[in-house]
Design goal:
This protein is mostly helical. It is built from four helices and no strands. This is Carboxymuconolactone decarboxylase-like domain-containing protein. InterPro entries: AhpD-like.
């Protein structure tokens, strides 16, 4: 459970809603951290740009990205 309440996915701008819909197709629901980022759309867009840049750079293998995400979540005491 997040310490900070996220947004209602139905009450966000179009870009954010599309990201949430994509996450729902992949993982069954929007990711909790993205619900929190969406409280400030500029932060949301920045975080998405970072992950898109990492993903498309080809510098970090996709499987390693998943492991890194889990490790960061664990360090932050987040359920992943």
């Amino acid at each position: 459970m997040a310490r900070i309440d996220g947004v209602n996915p139905e009450e966000v701008e179009t870009y954010i809603r599309k990201v949430f819909e994509s996450q729902e197709k992949i993982w069954g629901s929007p990711l909790l951290n993205h619900l929190v980022y969406a409280r400030r759309p500029s932060i949301f867009r920045g975080a998405r740009a970072m992950w898109t840049g990492i993903s498309t750079s080809g510098l970090i293998d996709e499987k390693l990205q998943c492991l890194l995400n889990r490790r960061v979540a664990m360090l932050n005491k987040c359920e992943f």
